[in-house]
Amino acid sequence: MPVTAVLILAAGTFAIRIAGPLLRDRVTLPDRVRELLSASATVLLFALVAISALTNGKSFGGWALALGVVVGGLAAWRKLPFVAVIVLAAATTAGLRLAGVA
């Protein structure tokens, strides 16, 4: 059963990937649809980041983690180097947890 499922998923993935180049000139999307597709990709990515960054297993990760994510987001928005973003977010979360914020 697992081998069959993998083969079916592989065939579907190949079909979707080959459909792009084959249908590129045949299918045109209106500008509004292109805007919606771009916006939906952004929303989906944001939701994925929010869920993975703010949860610990199946529950809320705590306010210290949430504030660490906010600090990291602000640092990234200010275009600080990636290492600085990670260090600030981790230090904020660790400091708040050390102070007793759950």
From TrEMBL:
Kindly state which keywords UniProt assigns to this record, in alphabetical order: Membrane, Transmembrane, Transmembrane helix
Keyword field contains Transmembrane: yes
Q: Give yes or no: UniProt keyword Transmembrane.
A: yes
Query: Which positions, given as ranges, span the membrane?
Result: 6-24, 36-54, 60-77, 82-100
The record's annotation in InterPro entries points to: Brnchd-chn_aa_trnsp_AzlD
The entry's protein name is Branched-chain amino acid transporter
Give the species this sequence originates from.
Lentzea guizhouensis
